[in-house]
Amino acid sequence: MDSRSQAPYKCSSFSQATTRDDGGRTREVDRNFSLGALRDKRDVHHGGTREQAIKEEDEQEDGEGTAGHGENGGDGAGSAGGEPDLAALSAEIDAFISGQDGDAPVTVSEATLEKFASAVELVIARSEGAEDKWAAEASGEPSPLLAPITRIAALASALGKSPEGGGSKHTAAVHRVTGVLHRAMAFLEDEFHALLEDPRVPKAANEQGAHEPDRCVLRPPPSDASAGPGKEAAPPYPPETVERLRAMADAMITAGYSTECMQMFLVARRNAFDAALQGLGYEKSNIDDVVKMTWEALEAEIVTWTKAFRHAINVGLSTEHDLCTRVFAGRHAAAGRGIFADLARCVMLHMLSFTEAVAMTKRAAEKLSKVLDMYEAVRDASPVVEAFLAADEPTNNSALTELKSEIASVRSRLSESAAAIFRELQGSIRADAGKQPVPGGAVHPLTRYVMNYLKYACDYNSTLEQVFRDGGGGGGDNPFASQLMEVMELLHGNLEAKSRLYKDPSLSNIFLMNNGRYMLQKIRGSSEINAMLGEAWARKQSTNLRQYHKNYQRETWSRVLGLLRDDGVLTVKGHVQKPVLKERFKQFNAAMDEIQRTQGAWVVSDEQLQSELRVSIAAVVVPAYRSFLGRFSQHFSAGRQTEKYVKLSAEDVETIIDELFDGNATSMVRRRT
Question: Domain Exocyst complex subunit Exo70 C-terminal spans what residues (predicted)?
């Protein structure tokens, strides 16, 4: 079977590996492939060992060769003990192979073909029982195992082109060579698969310890599994193993077993990649499972996925690309590029399908940060895949091109999802039209939610700018800043409407002050929000707060201060109208009692605003009352009359003001008792 020109059949995400036969049909490929039956021929013959059976067969063939010489007048190389002389036979075979390209092709005897085939089979049989089949010789020379396997592959190819191999002259010998080649490939496949699965390089007996072997998985860095591009991870195989894999791959591809070799390598590395992702906690989930998850469970899955995806892109793919480049080097480089592209496509497409499942779940504001985390991971994957595409440009690999396209598509879907989730915030503000005012004029829950949400969202301000720009949100100006401004305007309008739910205008202004101050503090406390909204917006908010303050003072304290005026108490000639004075003190006492009883229950949670209000009120009211008291209190008779009308000292008024806005409703009467 000549499959040198075949490339691995492209796999769908983590599907069973497949390849195409000559008829175009799809068949499963495992590590045994089509050579399983041939392995049975290496079993024990008549209760003896395989090596003994081969020796017996060689001795019989050697006797036959002695009786009749080949075309070249010789009986083929042999040894005194009857065992084929592999070195001498190899020289003849090399001469035959190289001679096929000349004007006068070199011929080879059937006996030589038979002996060489037996010699190669004997080498393989002896190697099967060795602890390290690929160990270098004592002289330092590479393992002698691959050379005869490679040579018999070249011989089979040469016989296929030679008149001797194509005719009936050496039919039996050609079949013998072909059979040993299949046996050699079956052996090599076993060894290739075993080395892929367990990359240990066996040590000498006295060097072996109790250490666990390195496994062929992508080992993530111990502390930073989401390392950036260029982050080096421990290679999956030691250098000696990589070199053996390279030599084996070269032999298999040369012998026409490229499809088997490439599929075996692809499946092994794909399984290793799977194991690495599982080591990071990532497990494959189908769309139905993801859609049914609670948000708490899905949130945890997204965190794991993001970590695993970043590792796969920044560490895993680079590791696999390097391995493919090393194992499939030189004239087989195109095969290596194809394997890597298929591997990258299979792994990444399955991971990217998770994002589609997340995008299908119900949109909710709390999902924004996790969707943006996924968006950033996918966005950062684009230049990595672009770099691989540039490196493999001569191949123009369709698998990598498809992966690039899918990444762009997923990024677009995540961008749309994130933008829609953020716009849900605007919808929730518009929909919040509650008719129940917040007790005490405190900060409304909507205000707290929106401002904290914006502060959290602005941790992703540059990403959100990209998201809205991806959706055509504008060029020169920051499209996210425009969205942010719209949210603030919506919130301001919503609060203005809610302030009208209060029957007391003073409380309405306290409500606006509380919420406006909270908004301003959150903006001042976030350099990102402050920078995007701009200083002009902050100044406007400060102006609004001052106006609310003035409105409150006018609604509450203007009437109180009016009671402390001289108008009506004194006649034109300066005489005191005592009935009017009594009424003024009665009204002032009642007003202060009402203010203490009601506004003591009002809430100003910001200590600075609370202090500013108290100080501004006291600065106007206390001096006015002290002056009024000083001028008119002596007009009451000492004793019961004074106690009846002059119930508060200037210090008492100051104390009442200092107890406002702390959420504790009291009255002057209860306080004085």
Answer: 305-659
Query: Mean pLDDT for the chain?
Result: 79
Residue 354 CA neighbour count, 13 Å, CB half: 25
- Calculate ∠ Cα 381-385-390, nearest 5°: 145
Residue 311 CA: distances (Å) to CA of 235, 337, 350, 415, 590: 14, 21, 15, 22, 73
CA gap 309, 381 in Å, rounded: 9
Mean local confidence (pLDDT), 404-415? 94
**Whole-angstrom Cα distance, residue 534 to residue 516?**
16
Helix (H) or strand (E) holding 272: helix 258-279
Which residue blocks in 133-238 are alpha helix, DSSP H?
146-161, 163-166, 171-197
For residue 25, give every residue at least 6 positions away whose Cβ sits within 8 Å of its Cβ, in sequence order, or none.
none
SS3 content of the chain, % helix, strand, coil (to 5): 65, 0, 30
Report the pLDDT averaged over residues 522-538: 88
3-class DSSP state of 70: coil
Query: What's the one-letter identity of residue 499?
Result: S
pLDDT over 90 (residue 512): yes
128 in Cβ contact with 66 (< 8 Å): no
Q: How many whole angstroms separate alpha carbon 655 and alpha carbon 657?
A: 5
The residue-averaged pLDDT of 84-91 equals 83
What are 133-168's pLDDT values in tens digits? 766 666 555 567 788 888 888 888 888 776 655 555
Burial pattern 437-469, b for ≥16 Cβ within 10 A else e, equals bbebbbbbebbebbbebbeebbebbebbbbbbb
Q: Are 588 and 658 in contact (CB under 8 A)?
A: no
Residue type, 21: D
CA 38 centroid distance within chain: 46
**In contact, 72 and 109? CB cutoff 8 Å:** yes
Pick from 538, 515, 529, 647: nearest CA to 593? 647
**Do 510 and 502 touch, CB atoms closer than 8 A?**
no
pTM above 0.70, yes or no: yes
85 within 8 A of 49, measured Cβ to Cβ: no
Contact yes or no for 324/273 (Cβ under 8 A): no
With 50 as the cut, is the pLDDT of residue 30 above it? no
What region does 136 belong to: left with phi over 0, alpha with psi -120 to 50, or beta?
beta
Nearest of 158, 141, 330 to residue 249 by alpha carbon: 330
More confident residue, 214 or 179: 179
Render pLDDT for 329-387 as a digit per residue (tens, 0 to 9): 988 998 999 999 999 999 999 999 999 899 888 888 889 999 999 999 999 999 999 99
User: By three-state DSSP, how is residue 173 classified?
Assistant: helix
